[in-house]
Amino acid sequence: MSSSETIAAISTPIGEGAIAIVRLSGSGALDVLARIFVGGIVPEAFVPRRVMLGRVQDSSGKLDDVLMTWFRAPNSYTGEDLVEISCHGGILVTRRVLDLVLAAGARMAEPGEFTQRAFLNGKMDLTQAEAVMDLIRAQTELALRAANEQLSGSLGSEVTEIRELLLTTLAHVEAYIDFPDEEIDPDTGKSLLDRMVTLENRLERLLATADQGRILRHGLRTVIYGAPNVGKSSLLNLLLGYDRAIVSDIPGTTRDTIEEVINIRGIPVRLVDTAGARDSAELLESEGIRRTREQVTQADLVIQVVDGSKRPAAIETFEEGKSVLLLNKSDLGIHPHWHEFVGAVRFSCKNKTGLEALSQAIWDRVMGAKVQLADVRVAINARHQACLQHAKKFLGAARSSFQDGKSPEFISIELRGALDAVGEVVGKLDAEDLLGKIFSEFCIGK
């Protein structure tokens, strides 16, 4: 990618629609536009942020009537001169307009290049750039809110504050290295140690949001598990609001896994209905049961469905916090055996009762019982998590070196490692490979 070139791409989804937008960015954006745009006014008279009506044409004549908007640098998304051409939304028309723009001197943008230029030109930090894609992919209100919080700079501000505190701590240590005769008195030494402990705690709080961030971005993989004929497929159909799975009194009706996505309190939940868990000699059913076991090992959460009106021969146990016990068929009464299971959800697919209790149980497993919807402001992704884990490791090593009375040079090296790792979160490093990987995941035109 070269920031000196003018780039162009279609920024709306490919397909038929009322309008489509072709976007250009770069110092030559207006020159490219002038070669194809006819509107009764010269480019020198264009007014920034004012929509102008005109037409685009090639050497053979008019192609389409369009609306043109010019955003003058640095007051644009990319920080460069940026032009948006709104044309009619047909597939052929849009492609022809893009071809005209490319023939007039622009080059095709790489995936994510518009946002990468915004980052390189200081319009946003790296966490905000990543939030753009989170915003596009958001499937629920909660995921959308978390993406908007990150786009507004909440995560970037928190990481920047941590970075500044690290810089101050490192400066203190390196000042002592440069001026060894100025001994660190006990009060100053305690202040330095307290600062490192505070930094570790702040990193730990951010790292605690990693699972929530993953779930908001990719969904909570939830397996509906249980013996045959306890109501697993009925539960799936009820949660979806339509008949997706076949329901039958015949054991073994479900042979393969069925996966659908629903929204529970803003959490995207990927429901997986599975074959009933039991021993079977029948080839197809046994394969379905094998897949059931496989899905359970990959699940974020298991909804274990049982017939609450009967006493089971045995009940399986799962990793703590990974399962919700659902006592279905509560309309038939709850067997005394289940009274000791305080956290179990009493449910009836037939009467459609227990939905709110199930939603609350899922929310508590994912977000924690004390978390409120408005509190979900920062949710780090896998890249942030790796960087912050490295930073916490370096910082812990620096604190240990300080407590063990090691040379300040050792402490300085560890603090620099932590500083680099934190800086990588917001893009305060010259890491070309890192930037290329991040922005390559964007769609073309963004």
Task: Give a topology summary.
Layout: E1 7-10, E2 17-25, H1 29-34, E3 37-38, E4 52-58, E5 61-71, E6 82-89, H2 91-103, E7 107-108, H3 113-120, H4 126-137, H5 141-151, H6 154-178, H7 186-207, H8 210-218, E8 220-226, H9 232-240, E9 258-264, E10 267-273, H10 283-298, E11 301-307, E12 323-328, E13 345-346, H11 355-367, H12 382-403, H13 408-426, H14 432-439
Parallel strand pairs: 1-7, 8-10, 8-11, 11-12, 12-13
Antiparallel strand pairs: 1-2, 2-6, 3-4, 4-5, 5-6, 9-10
Helix pairs in contact: 4-5, 6-7, 6-13, 7-12, 12-13
Description:
The protein has 14 helices and 13 strands. The protein is α/β, with parallel strands linked by helices. It folds into three domains: about 5-125, 2-Layer Sandwich (Gyrase A, domain 2), CATH 3.30.1360; about 130-210 and about 380-425, tRNA modification GTPase MnmE domain 2 (Four Helix Bundle (Hemerythrin (Met), subunit A)); about 220-375, P-loop containing nucleotide triphosphate hydrolases (Rossmann fold, 3-Layer(aba) Sandwich). The strands form two sheets. It has a seven-stranded mixed β-sheet. A six-stranded mixed β-sheet has the order 9-10-8-11-12-13, with helices on both faces. A hairpin with a 6-residue loop joins β1 (about 5-10) and β2 (about 15-25). α4 runs antiparallel to α5 (about 140-150), α6 runs antiparallel to α13 and α12 (about 380-405) packs antiparallel against α13 (about 410-425). The longest helix has 25 residues, at about 155-180. The radius of gyration is 29 Å and the shape is flat.
